[in-house]
Structures are given as C-alpha cells and as structure tokens.
Amino acid sequence: xxxxxxxxxxxxxxxxxxxxxxxxxxxxxxxxxxxxxxxxxxxxxxxxxxxxxxxxxxxxxxxxxxxxxxxxxxxxxxxxxxxxxxxxxxxxxxxxxxxxxxxxxxxxxxxxxxxxxxxxxxxxxxxxxxxxxxxxxxxxxxxxxxxxxxxxxxxxxxxxxxxxxxxxxxxxxxxxxxxxxxxxxxxxxxxxxxxxxxxxxxxxxxxxxxxxxxxxxxxxxxxxxxxxxxxxxxxxxxxxxxxxxxxxxxxxxxxxxxxxxxxxxxxxxxxxxxxxxxxxxxxxxxxxxxxxxxxxxxxxxxxxxxxxxxxxxxxxxxxxxx
Length: 322
Fold this sequence. Notes:
13 helices; DNA polymerase, domain 1; three-stranded antiparallel β-sheet; 6% strand
C-alpha cells in the first residue's frame, strides 16, 4: 500500500490490507520514526504525523471519507480553506501542513495523488506598520462606546475586554466555554484545546477579567433561567441555542463597533496584534511576551518588536521646532 512503510498502517481486515488504504486513527508514529529517522528530524516527523492525522479527522467528520483512495483534490482544497478562513492560519503555516499531506500521499502505491496539482500558497507579505493599527486608547474608546441595553451588548463588551486581557485568537475566543475556566494551584486560567498548535494550552486570567466573567455568568444564568452553565459558550451567537459565533460573525460585530467608535475596520486578530505590541512598548521582554502570545517561535514575536521600533522612530516628529 505505501512505499517503504506499509507496516505504518495497522490493517483492520484483509479487505483493508488489499485495497482500501484505510488509515484514519491507525498511523503508528513509532514506526514512522523508525523508517525515516535518518532522513528527517524527529520534530519534522512529529509535525507531519500530527498534521496528517488532523487532516484525516477533518475529512472524516466533514465528508464522511475514511478511505485514502476516496480523498480527492476538492477535499484537500476544502481543508486548506478551513485552515485559512476558520482557523486563520498564516500561509506559511498552511504550507507546512500541506507538505505533510503531500509527504504521505507521495508514498502511497496504487493511489492517485490528490495533492499533485495543489500548489503551495504565496508567503504572507509583512509590514511592521500593519501591526500598529489599533492602540490602547482605541481599545478603551471601543469598549466604552458600548452602551449595555441588551444581553448582546453585555456579551460584546466582555468579548472585547477578553480579547484585550488574554490575546486569544478568534477561534479560541469563539469556542470558549465556562468549563474551560479552570483553577490550577489557586490560579485561574483558560484551558484551550482548540488552538493553532492543536495542543492543549493554558492562558492566565487577569484578576479584573475574572470578576467581569463571574458577574456576566451570573447575569446570563438568571436572565435565561439556566440551571447549569458548565457546557455553555461564553459568547454564543444565540444564548438559548448555545451555538458559538462564526469567525465572520465575530469580526462583523467588532468591525461595526470599531467603525462607529474609532473610524477603523478592526478584526479580532487586530486585538491580538495590539496587546502584544502594547506589552512590548511597556518594556516587557521579548521572551515573556512570546510566552504570553504562545508563539511557536521567537522569530514571530520579533515581528512585533520591529513594529515597536518603528513606532519609537516616529516620535522624532514630536520634537518641537527650534
């Protein structure tokens, strides 16, 4: 079935062994490591293994496809679209995932490679000035502009404060449930399972935000007569249906608030840019900011540092004339 590493697939039946190529949930990392440890680093193999299993899980859940021969180019493109639009990954990150998918399909015998005509995405352009779109004062103005007349107003106000105090990504915020607010050795944290790295991560909660969330939770519980809140989304599109906001829905809310209050088109991810930049401007060292942002590499955080230096350089214009 697979060139060089047929044993990597644990065959569930003679039919699978002969012609189906069923591999969802059956990839064996230790055997993958054994076959390719001389050609690829352990990190690369772990990443490829991890990315490919997530791809298979997506194809299975979204299209009901569990057999390798049944996967086609449209499935690949749908997954790339999901990574770009729903998970908001950078093109460079998407290309890494695409490489892992190509890696496995290129080593499949008797199966048409659905990735052969799928090109890698162009690298994202980077301009430090883009990071400086939203300031701390802008955020304060946006939050204070929300007059709380309805539950959705209350939700929107807390959403903005949560984005500011946590630096959460859009998908992380939208999928946040009360059960994800945990206590670890007396410290309140957000437990994230749906992250960019797709690994469980913990985000410390600012004491000011903890009080806001507790008050909000009690208000929601009383307003909708909910008995249990454990499995409820913090920021649902509809409280009674308990369905999360879509990425477009969240960004539409934020754009509407920002255009009305500060005259800028702002998205959820702009908040993340802003808080990272604010921390650097306040002198927090690069390593600590990188940990807060949960960046996979210090190189990513360095982009924000470049933006900070650009902002500092612009202060030359503030020097009074002689």
